[in-house]
């Protein structure tokens, strides 16, 4: 983007795409590990339009060293420093004939182990035995997400569509988007690349129209300590 660094892109636009983070061989090895996983647990969701694994790094622990390669760790540390840890992970497999889509939204919740009445945290939801809560904005503003692409992805098979700069506007209700002022960008990513985004970035995903799969590993990171009585549900060690 006009010679901007990845740090500048993330600061200004709320996202960046970095190609060639993983080799084809590394991606294929990761796919093989996923295919060997026991899909009988409640954290696995399988429908005609989507296969998803929640708490992915817990359910497929062999994927941890396959994902956290020296190259990935170096890129994350260079962009954000060394204080961040993975706190949530999901694997998405969108088949080539999928009609699954997601309308514009921000990622406003974090996943925690147990529900607790803590000022500034709420409302609460539960999905597949997983507690989610909306934390104070300061936590969301500091968190970031990486989306590792295991397939070439563009606007025809569900690449994220985003509103650049929307991450800096606090809670931004999708129904209030003024398209005369805002723009939309498709975040196309090749196999082995990754997209980095802030949770407050408005993003959406369209139906697949080219019959190509879209497999993505979604991992959220935080450098925040939660208040007493609240614990991250998937906190990985440094």
From TrEMBL:
SUPFAM superfamilies: Clavaminate synthase-like. GO terms for molecular function: 2-oxoglutarate-dependent dioxygenase activity; iron ion binding. Signal peptide: none annotated. Its cofactor is Fe(2+). Coiled coil: none annotated. Keywords: Dioxygenase, Oxidoreductase. It comes from Chitinophaga filiformis (Myxococcus filiformis). The lineage of its organism: Bacteria, Pseudomonadati, Bacteroidota, Chitinophagia, Chitinophagales. InterPro entries: Phytyl_CoA_dOase-like (IPR008775). This is Phytanoyl-CoA dioxygenase (PhyH). PANTHER family: ECTOINE DIOXYGENASE, PHYTANOYL-COA DIOXYGENASE DOMAIN CONTAINING 1. It comes from the Bacteria.
